[in-house]
Design brief:
Blueprint (H helix, E strand, L loop, with lengths): L4 E2 L10 H7 L18 E2 L6 H11 L2 H8 L8 H13 L6 E2 L2 H10 L11 H15 L6 H6 L1 E9 L6 E8 L2 E4 L8 E2 H9 L2 E9 L4 E12 L5 E7 L1 E3 L4 E3 L4 E2 L5 E2 L17 E12 L4 E8 L6 E5 L2 E4 L11 E8 L4
Parallel strand pairs: 2-3, 6-10, 7-13
Antiparallel strand pairs: 1-18, 4-5, 4-9, 8-9, 10-19, 11-12, 14-15, 15-16, 15-19, 16-17, 17-18
Length: 342
């Protein structure tokens, strides 16, 4: 350990995935016993796999998810959960400063061949697919994934053309996608992005009312439905795509490390509202630096053992001394934990 950095270097050019798997439990000693902190374990980049490493470090630092994964025994008949459980046990053993997630990647790529190609991928897409695969392997309708991550949004449309009827529709979400304005000169805060998502919008003649049997003016609104998810994952939609081009939006968004309050976005007149904690605290951020063509992912995460923040850049880990450094224009995925679950 030097200047707050933990670093492990190895040559990967001549290693096969099988050799990486064999070597992944190589123990790296810290200089002193005090340095042995569970959870401070880097992940080797297997070739453009920083997207996976960043997503895994975010998930690793969700306390309740890690506790549940660590409770699974070796006899579990689920290859992805088994590989992930082994990885998490290594990362939180306090005996390793780096490990190689090759076994997990092999099992994931058998279900999702796109991840075999060792090219840049989207960290949010990987995280979403990965959580879905865990949910599938647990084989029941309700799992630790649904219990921790799933929330509901109700969309309502009110006809303003005469009947004033309201049509509602509920959608289950595991990520909250928030728009990011392409305006680097403006000061933006997360609440403004949330307000844009949940605000009431006019539908001027674009809404077909099933009661009026005609196109009518209407108003559309989205609201959160209780219960709120214990883990809230926010995706800041920085990437835009069309037929001719793609681009990244580098707008700085100021987001809170503590006390994110979702109370104003919960559907009104809900009897449960007064008895629910609507406050969330940040535990991890996946950051995307560079461009769409040449980008890199780094995670900032709060260690649950010592409550300190660290930067996870593949194999390299450093402590973040100033919490102001956590909020940057590169923030892409924000992981919040409901206050009652901390």
């Amino acid at each position: 350990m030097e200047n707050g950095w933990i670093k492990f270097e190895t040559a990967l050019d001549d290693l096969t995935l099988a050799e990486m798997e064999f070597d992944q439990y190589s123990m790296i000693s810290f200089e002193t016993e005090d340095d042995l902190i569970p959870g401070l374990c880097g992940l080797t980049n297997l070739g453009n796999t920083c997207f996976m490493n960043s997503a895994l470090q975010c998930l690793s630092n969700i306390p309740e998810l890690t506790r549940k994964i660590l409770s699974f025994g070796n006899e579990i008949n689920a290859p992805i959960i088994g590989a992930y459980s082994t990885l998490i046990k290594t990362m939180w053993s306090g005996e390793h400063v780096v490990t190689i997630p090759s076994s997990l990647l092999l099992n994931i790529s058998e279900n999702l061949p796109r991840f075999r190609r060792y090219r840049q991928q989207d960290a949010q897409e990987f995280m979403n697919y990965f959580l879905h695969l865990i949910h599938q392997e647990l084989t029941s309708e309700r799992t630790l994934i649904t219990d921790l991550f799933y929330g509901r949004i109700q969309s309502s449309v009110k006809c303003l053309g005469g009947c004033h009827s309201i049509e509602t529709n509920e959608e289950v979400i595991s990520f909250l996608p928030l728009p990011v304005a392409n305006d680097i000169d403006e000061y933006n805060i997360l609440y403004l992005q949330s307000n844009d998502f949940f605000r009431e919008e006019p539908l001027n003649g674009d809404y077909y009312c099933s009661k009026c049997l005609d196109l009518k003016t209407a108003r559309q609104k989205a609201d959160l439905v209780l219960p709120l998810p214990p883990v809230l994952i926010i995706q800041l939609k920085r990437f835009t795509y069309d037929l001719d081009s793609s681009a990244k939006i580098d707008t700085y968004i100021d987001f809170p490390l503590r006390d994110l309050d979702l109370g104003q976005y919960i559907i009104q007149n809900n009897d449960e509202k007064t008895n629910v904690s609507t406050l969330y605290d940040l535990v991890a951020v996946s950051n995307h630096t560079g461009s769409l063509v040449a980008g890199h992912y780094i995670t900032y995460a709060r260690n649950d053992r010592n409550k300190k923040w660290y930067s996870f850049n593949d194999e390299t880990i450093r402590e973040i001394i100033d919490e102001h450094d956590i909020v940057t224009k590169n923030a892409y995925i924000l992981v919040y934990i409901q206050r009652t679950t901390l």
